[in-house]
Write a structure and sequence with these properties.
Blueprint (H helix, E strand, L loop, with lengths): L1 H27 L9
């Protein structure tokens, strides 16, 4: 279960960190989108 927790932690925290980093630029854009796969 530790390995699964690590994988989920990386995926979730990575998406959150990236979103927080680009959010100011997204607010300035007229057609901002976030796509997660």
């Amino acid at each position: 279960m530790d390995r699964l927790d690590l994988v989920l932690d990386i995926n979730i925290r990575g998406s959150l960190a990236l979103t927080r980093a680009v959010l100011p630029y997204l607010w300035e854009s007229d057609h901002a989108r976030i796509l997660t796969l």
